[in-house]
């Protein structure tokens, strides 16, 4: 594409093109160098923390935090892992985020099917309600939810967080999917109807297979968003056994009880899952973010 | 069964049924608590006993509370850090990545750089908070670097001194936030017609000229959405404050969401906390409504 552009631009007006290219040629290296330095600068804080987490405790005590480690050593990480029962926190995060991703995609699918394809009456008002729910600060819901959860014996359970985030994520998912479904090819729905398929069969045999990529992006998104959620899990997951990774790290940090090596170890263990998701989902994520922005 | 029902009327009640689970949960988790919060804000309540009806008493107290106003002033600084600065930098960086790096060094180089800028955005905020708290303590890495290069006089307890804490938090938020506008703008640039750039180039527009006269007008919808979204996020911000400063030192970095949290759970002044949350919500909804109104009008003009 870029090539095509220079080719088409070149013949009619050679002088300005040549001039601009000559001017840009050394410039592009400067731009590359500048952006490269900036990118390193953005990643550097993370790298410094990783180095320090890998230093043996004694070396850490005797050297400056910006010195590179002489020996690599996993003791800090292992110690932090057992001290906070990190495996348990990971499992809680996976369980909560995974359940929310599946439930919220299903609920969004049903809602959007009724709103986008079924075009039920009053859909505009319903969509506005869903958008509104999406931008509400969670502070305005948290105390009543906390009170209700206590009454219902759901306080300090992972189930309470799963229910709350399934609904919050569904508010976004409904809005997005309803817009996608409004463009759904009518001929396909018509054909399914002529074949005698009811709404339930049409949903599973026609709508779901065709929108599978969008549903997958949504599911990835709900998973990562829920993984990173902090405020409501902080309040609802009181006991150590129920806490997610985010909450456990945030609470430990907030209590200022960790020494420097332990903090850096906790940050590294908190980064690892995200970096794994990031590598797996890089494309999906950036596509998804953009998708979110279209709203 | 289903076949009979659809045959009789395919736009009938059939589709309504699909809304039942979603709507029921929505009412239970969003609408009822939202209404309860407004109710609570009209009372004096410690969360345990019987709420005492006070009408608008909490709101009257709120508007006379200096802490409430200073928390909103801090919010304005965070709007700068989370919305304005990342949008401006994101535009320049996105255009540089798209126009210079993407075209001259290939899309792979551009996407590696983009990933680097974007990584802080996907980290859990708790992790980002730990990283920066660790770097910014008195004997942390940032001060170690400053001392090493002979700028020891610039070393501070960045998050612990009242004078510096808010600016430091703002800086960390720029670091976290930058990737979001960048990614959105880069994808927006994909749909700009290359002929517009050619025309601008032929007209003698330089790099900044093309950014200003072509890129910005063309991706205005993305810019508008990013600004709205990040401004709302800045007004709601909680986790970085909790992890970095807990609103302190003093109340130097307190923001409305943290202020309401303190009233709910530390001071158990639940009615007051509910009033703060309600005001914050109204502000955010008003902002979104004004914005959508403006956007609608703009689309009509075009």
What do you see in this structure?
The complex is a heterodimer of chains A (295) and B (302). Chain A folds into two domains: 2-76, no CATH class; 85-294, MetI-like (MetI-like fold), CATH 1.10.3720.10. Helices cover 80% and strands 0% of the residues of chain A. Chain A contains 14 helices and no strands. Chain B has one domain (60-301): MetI-like fold (Orthogonal Bundle), CATH 1.10.3720.10. Chain B is built from 15 helices and two strands. By secondary structure, chain B is an all-alpha fold. Chain B is globular and about 75 Å long. In chain B, helix 4 (66-104) runs antiparallel to helix 5 (107-122) and helix 4 (66-104) runs antiparallel to helix 12 (220-236). At the A-B interface, helix 1, helix 2, helix 5, helix 6 and helix 7 of A face helix 1, helix 2, helix 4, helix 5 and helix 6 of B.
Summarize the entry for a quick read:
Chain A is mostly helical. Chain A contains 14 helices and no strands. Chain A has 2 domains: about 1-75, no CATH class; about 85-295, Orthogonal Bundle (MetI-like fold).
Give the topology, please.
The complex is a heterodimer of chains A (295) and B (302).
Chain A: H1 2-9, H2 14-53, H3 57-62, H4 75-83, H5 86-117, H6 123-135, H7 139-151, H8 158-182, H9 186-194, H10 199-210, H11 212-228, H12 231-236, H13 245-255, H14 260-294
Chain B: H1 2-8, H2 19-41, E1 43-44, E2 52-53, H3 57-63, H4 66-104, H5 107-122, H6 125-136, H7 141-148, H8 162-177, H9 179-189, H10 194-202, H11 207-218, H12 220-236, H13 239-244, H14 256-266, H15 270-301
Antiparallel strand pairs in B: 1-2
Helix pairs in contact in B: 2-15, 4-5, 4-8, 4-9, 4-12, 5-9, 10-11, 12-15, 14-15
